């Protein structure tokens, strides 16, 4: 199969390595010539160009740009590709993308490979990045079943765990498990910044170990990514945040009232619930 | 030196292994005969007993019981040990312990080795548990300097990083970096429990990966430990919690008002601040 990839970063580059490894011909597009060169050198693509016209004869295109560039890129692609080409994306929110793209292109299937690393860029691309990780596809009522089936086969060949769901269900789920944790964790760091006694602040920095490290990790991550997820999944993140504030208020009340039995019961529930996430 | 250890769990047992390895004679006390036997078999103590009277001739005693048992244990020890014996503890809060014990025993130096594992009990004891980790000592104005110096030498011999500070400063610092994260993280799990759409909840469980795993880890931990820290560090935890709620409220407001520039600025600050904790 001829496969196009627009955007040769960590995800686009890693897709290219895997898809070439499975015998497909992969053509890449990047805005930067240097990225095209590295992608070719690293074997992530058979050929690469700064021009979308390299994608004239592809069967499927993966749009691996930042979220805001997905729909504009597809608009530019339309005059170039044939009408039966499948387009998919790898954005971490789906409702906004699917709503914007569906009127433009019928054979569009939203996608979200839930794999990543701390760093981005073609330099960090690796084969096997998606193996064993979730890869969500979000077809809607009007998506042609043959297009879903073909994309699903390709994604399964990466040995990802494939989940099919509605774009809205995807966004609500990732609001809980990806986007809410970023704000929760950023709030922890933000609160610590408020310590005005420098002796205590210095001591806190010296004593911080695995508990603080883990809980503060995603809140200390890439600010642009944090804003993107909040912006494009604003409604569901906001709902999750209000629910979270209620949970925190309840926990504060237990501490205020020194209701240690109530607190223990609550912590038993969270221990039990968390085990269901990793059973 | 003759060293006594009361409470032969993960911390007491690991201390015993390290101290015997450095040539000290270690005598242990546990309420359970089986624990005494395992401690002897594992080489964590030279001898062990269910009776405190085994500690008649020790130079220093480490109290490694749960926090609530520290002062009662020391009351029982007083008729047995000689007046120049140093007593220390390993509790994770210090102000309440130091206030309770100082009137009982002059040569008391509060201590907090910040090392731990997911599991507790003598079975998990290991040599080198404290190496490279913080070990806080919390002498006060009335603590004899010679007692601090002698304990500090022993703790340094474990190749721990030793910090000396006031009990209150310790408790304020660990409220930020140990105790607040537990509530923040428990709140995240608690909020997810509120998702009433079972399709979305199931999907969230299936898609949860490293971000949720890390942020929810300490909130899914041992409920008894969580309650102990809240109970004995209630005032400083409560202050941290109110500060945290303010941070979360501010972040929610940025999302509500779609102030993406403001959110990006805030996330840049948290990224920068976190790097200061692990520089």
From TrEMBL, chains A, B:
<dbReference type="InterPro" id="IPR036291">
    <property type="entry name" value="NAD(P)-bd_dom_sf"/>
</dbReference>
<dbReference type="GO" id="GO:0006571">
    <property type="term" value="P:tyrosine biosynthetic process"/>
</dbReference>
<dbReference type="GO" id="GO:0004665">
    <property type="term" value="F:prephenate dehydrogenase (NADP+) activity"/>
</dbReference>
<dbReference type="Pfam" id="PF02153">
    <property type="entry name" value="PDH_N"/>
</dbReference>
<dbReference type="Pfam" id="PF20463">
    <property type="entry name" value="PDH_C"/>
</dbReference>
<dbReference type="InterPro" id="IPR008927">
    <property type="entry name" value="6-PGluconate_DH-like_C_sf"/>
</dbReference>
<dbReference type="InterPro" id="IPR050812">
    <property type="entry name" value="Preph/Arog_dehydrog"/>
</dbReference>
<protein>
    <submittedName>
        <fullName>Prephenate/arogenate dehydrogenase</fullName>
    </submittedName>
</protein>
<dbReference type="InterPro" id="IPR046826">
    <property type="entry name" value="PDH_N"/>
</dbReference>
<keyword id="KW-0560">Oxidoreductase</keyword>
<dbReference type="InterPro" id="IPR003099">
    <property type="entry name" value="Prephen_DH"/>
</dbReference>
<dbReference type="GO" id="GO:0070403">
    <property type="term" value="F:NAD+ binding"/>
</dbReference>
<feature type="domain" description="Prephenate/arogenate dehydrogenase">
    <location>
        <begin position="1"/>
        <end position="279"/>
    </location>
</feature>
<dbReference type="GO" id="GO:0008977">
    <property type="term" value="F:prephenate dehydrogenase (NAD+) activity"/>
</dbReference>
<comment type="similarity">
    <text>Belongs to the prephenate/arogenate dehydrogenase family.</text>
</comment>
<dbReference type="InterPro" id="IPR046825">
    <property type="entry name" value="PDH_C"/>
</dbReference>
């Amino acid at each position: 199969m001829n496969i196009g990839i627009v955007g040769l970063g960590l995800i686009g580059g890693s897709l290219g390595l895997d898809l070439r490894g499975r015998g497909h011909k992969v053509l890449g597009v990047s805005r930067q010539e240097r990225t095209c060169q590295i992608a070719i050198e690293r074997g992530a693509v058979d050929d690469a160009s700064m021009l979308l016209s390299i994608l004239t004869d592809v069967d499927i295109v993966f749009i691996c740009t930042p979220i805001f560039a997905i729909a504009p890129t597809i608009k530019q692609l339309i005059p170039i590709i044939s009408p039966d080409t499948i387009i998919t994306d790898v954005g971490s929110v789906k409702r906004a993308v699917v709503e914007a793209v569906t009127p433009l292109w019928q054979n569009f299937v939203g996608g979200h490979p839930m794999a990543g690393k701390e760093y981005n860029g073609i330099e960090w691309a690796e084969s096997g990045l998606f193996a064993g990780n979730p890869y969500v596809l979000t077809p809607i009522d009007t998506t042609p079943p043959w297009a879903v089936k073909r994309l699903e086969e390709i994604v399964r060949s990466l040995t990802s765990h494939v989940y099919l769901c509605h774009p809205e269900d995807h966004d609500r789920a990732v609001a809980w498990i990806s986007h809410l944790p970023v704000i929760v964790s950023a709030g922890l760091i933000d609160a610590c910044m408020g310590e005005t006694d420098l002796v205590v602040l210095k001591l806190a920095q010296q004593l911080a170990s695995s508990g603080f490290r883990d809980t503060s990790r995603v809140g200390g991550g890439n600010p642009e990514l944090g804003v993107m997820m909040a912006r494009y999944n604003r409604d569901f993140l906001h709902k999750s945040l209000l629910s979270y504030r209620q949970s925190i208020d309840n926990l504060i009340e237990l501490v205020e009232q020194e209701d240690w039995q109530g607190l223990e019961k609550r912590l038993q529930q969270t221990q039990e619930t968390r085990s269901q996430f990793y059973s």
